[in-house]
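Notes, p. 3: input format for complexes.
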Amino acid sequence: MQEAAKSKDSKIVLALDFPYESPNNRQNVLSKAQKILKAVHPYICAVKINHHLVLPLGTFDGVQQLVEQIRGQGLIAIMDAKVNDIGATNQMIAEYYYSAGFDTIIANPFVGWDEGLKPLFEVSMRLNRGVILLCYMSHKGASEGYGQTIIDSETGEKTLQYVSFAKKALKWGADGVVVGATYPKKIKEIKHILGQKVAIYSPGVGAQGGDAETALKAGADYLIVGREITMAVDPAKASSQLCDSIKGL
Ligand code: 3DU
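Output follows (249 residues plus 3DU):
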């Protein structure tokens, strides 16, 4: 990610998201995605694909074509699978996405380590790919899970769920964490725990009300941006303007 961000001089991760269309129009969705990638690739460093693009396009069909395009443009391909199952299943989910060419996968630490995310980290290490953990999501209801006060199962002490997840990201050797741009104070708090060891990816800029500059100043390393670019009348202009506005931050 560091190399891609440096060579592209951008901290923007494009969330390649589109509104629902009838499955009969899935070729249209693929064409739209290819067109946007062609237009915005000079202004971004990575592309994040979510379930709602995999569903109409298929992993080893349209999505794999997109991943080839993404990697061919010198960008990192992130699969936002929010992996959240038992270890054996998580491992297979990761193996399929890595086989499709993804560089890294997003997982949910709520599932825990033993028989949870451990097999996912193992397969990622073996294949030299990355794992990004959710730490504090960008929506309001995030407080009900990530924001809860908990008793840490290892120390027996009271702490906040997202603080515990940030510490786990360090301990488990994650390559990044997701913290909503809508919560700059939490970005700051989490940055304090992670330092430069684990990168912070912040979604929620624009459509969800988060501010790019505020998130970066609070400590975000990369911004995940979807609708602000994909739904813009001119996606290239929207992404180049955003990229320029955050240069040097
Ligand atoms: O709000 P946007 O259109 O910029 O899209 C944000 C993307 O990031 C979208 O794919 C969403 O599923 C993902 N995401 C969050 O918005 C918040 C999170 O905590 C994690 C992922």
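Strands lie at 12-15, 46-50, 76-83, 104-107, 130-136, 149-151, 158-160, 176-179, 199-203, 222-225.
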